[in-house]
Amino acid sequence: MKKFTVVFLSILIVAFSFTACSSKPNNKLTEKNITNTIDTIFDALKEFDSSTVKRYVESSTLDTILTYASKKDQFRKLGVAMFENLQYEIKEIDTDNKTVMLAVKNKNLSEVASEYTKNLLKEYASISGMLQLLKDIQNDTWLDTNLSVLTKGISNAAMKDEETDITLSFEQKNDRLVFTFTQTAEDAVSGGALTAINNIF
Q1: Distance between CA atoms of 124 and 120, rounded to whole angstroms?
Q2: CA 63/CA 91 separation, integer angstroms
């Protein structure tokens, strides 16, 4: 009986520890919750989980691509390719001013994305071309062919040598914290890819 009690208590301790570690972020202004929310955001970026990123992030460029990703798996795969190598470290949390400073590092994707964007815009240069592009990005065959080119370029790109420091501000909602990604932050986390890609869409 004593042995059973010890085993049972051990299982309870493990269960409570797991629950504590995997608890969902909330709106509390504590360093633990802020860290938990940041971890949740960056995990969601790596999986390009549209609903989770949209829940905790305010970002016009990301929002556009996430909307496409929620409808077309090709865009989700593109997002995964963009963020799968993303590294981050929380350097400072300021609960009074509601800001977080992070050091982030990703592949250098600016040139890859810019070259892709330039070629695509050249192909669809006219007004009628842009209207055609809006139709084409709804076509799975077109997406498979065209986005795979960009995804392959991202896969072959090299990591940046240095980290970039960014500061994210956040606000308290009823049940969560929401972090604002400026264009500078978007560029840093995406290795320069988001701005270039957003010029298409």
Answers
A1: 6
A2: 26
